[in-house]
Please model this.
Amino acid sequence: MKLDPELSAQTLREHLAITADNVYGRNRTAELADQIEHLSRMLAGVARMELDLTEAPLPGPVHLDRRSS
Amino acid sequence: MSVYPGMTAREIVAGVHGGTAPVSDVIEAHLHQIEMHDDDIRAFATVNADLARTEAAVLDARSESGARLPLHGVPVGVKDIIDVAGLPTIAGFDPYRSNVARRDAAIVARLRSLGAVMIGKTHTTQFAVGDPAPTRNPWNLEKSPAGSSAGSGAAVPSRMAPIALGSQTAGSMLRPAAFNGSVGFKPTFGWMPLDGVIPLCWSLDHLGLYAAGVDDIQLVYSALADEDASGATLRPQSRIAMLPEYLALSDRAIAEHVQAVAETLRSAGAIVDEINLPVSFDDIYAVHQVIFSAEMSAVHSANLARYPDAYGARIRAGVETGSLIPANYLLHARRLQRKLAGHIDQWLAGYDAVLLPTVSTEACDRAETGDRRFQVPATLLGLPAISLPTGLGPGRLPLGAQFIGRAGQDSALLRLAGWVTEQSPLIKRPDLG
Model:
C-alpha cells in the first residue's frame, strides 16, 4: 500500500486491522494507524499547495542557497 | 573569586583569565553538582570525570603560561548524539552502549580549541525522536524536560554545566529550553557543522546552544563565529511581528504571558505589530512533517531491520510509516520548503524578529515530550531562533517566549534578545535543595 491523501482514516484502519495485527499485535497496530492517519493528513496538506513548474527543491542547505543568491 | 556551580560562562572565563578561578576547581565544582543532583535529574548519560580533570590540568598549565582562551575552562554538556573522543555516543540506543567515538565531532573540536571542557554526554530521546529520555524536569521531577535534547536542556538550570549543546530537527532545542527554564538558541541552518553528529533528517538537522543567560550564548557564539555578537541593542524603529494565529492555539496563560512581554517591549520603544506569517501554521507543519518522516525513514530503515527490538515504539512507527511516503510527495514538500523559505525571508525584511510562544503549554507529564508545532517554523525555514524563559505559569513551571530572526542575521537576533532580557528579566534557576 502507498499513502494517498484521498484514503480515509477508516479505510486505512480497516486495511491495517486486517494486515498488521497479526504481524505487530494490536498496540503496535494502533500506534502505526495513528501515525499513518497523521501522515495522510500532512500529505493532503502538502498536495493542496501548488507550485510552478520552475520551482525546484533546494540544491543544498537553505543558508548556502540564500547566500549565493 | 570563589568557584561554585551555577557560575555563568562569562564569570568562569573572567575568573580563569584573572587567575582567581583555576579550571580544575571549576571542573570539580561542576562534577560535584552532578554527583549531588543527577540521581534525581538524570541529565547525564556519561560523565567525563577523568578526561575532564586531565583537560583541566592542561588548561591550567596553559593559563599559567599566559594563554587566554575565549572559553577558557567553561564546562560543556554534549547531547549524546554528538561525538566526543573517548566517550560512547549512545543516542539512547542500547546497541550503541560501547560505541566509543574515536574523534570529536567538528563542533566539539572547535569548542575544545577555544578552551571549553566537555564535562559529559547528556541524555537524548532515542536518536533525537519522540520516545522520552530518562531525564526529569528540575522544576518538578514529575514533569517532562521535553525532548529530544532533554539532558542538555535540564543540565543548565540544574547548574551542572553553564553551556550545553543540543540539536533540533523539529523542536528539540527550543522546547527543552522552555520546559526547563534555560535560554536555548538555534542558529541559522548549516551554521554549526554536523560532522560527527548522528543524523536524523539531512534537510532539517540543526545544532544549538543552551545557557542560563543570553550573554553566555553571545559569548559562545562570538567565539565560534569569531565576530562580536555581544550587547543589548534595539535599533531605532525596530519592528517585531507577534503572531495571533499561534497565540490562539496556545493555552491562555501562555498567550497572556507573551502578550505581556510584547506590551513591555512596546513600552520600552519597540514597535510590535500583531500580524500573521504569510504562510499558515497548517501548511508549514505539513511540509515539515512530510520531509521529517521520509528522511527519518531513509536514515533509520536499515538499522531498524538490523535491531528491530532495540527501537522505541514511536521512532519505530515513524520509520515504518515514513517509508510509505511516495517520492513525489517528498520532492513536492522539498520544493515547498524552498518556496516558503524565500517567501518568508522577503516578508521578514520588514521586521527585526517574530515573537510567539516557544510551546503552546507548560511542561507536560513525563510520558510525553510536549507540543513541537511552534518550534517547527524556524526549523523548516532554517531561521535563527531563541527561547527566553521570561516567566512562570500557573503550575509554577517556566514559560518561554520565542524570537525568530532572519536567515544569517544570528548576531542581530542575539543582540535583540539581550535587549529583551533587559526589559523583561529572565526567571531565576530552580532551587534543587
User: Anything to note?
Assistant: Chain B has 14 helices and eleven strands.
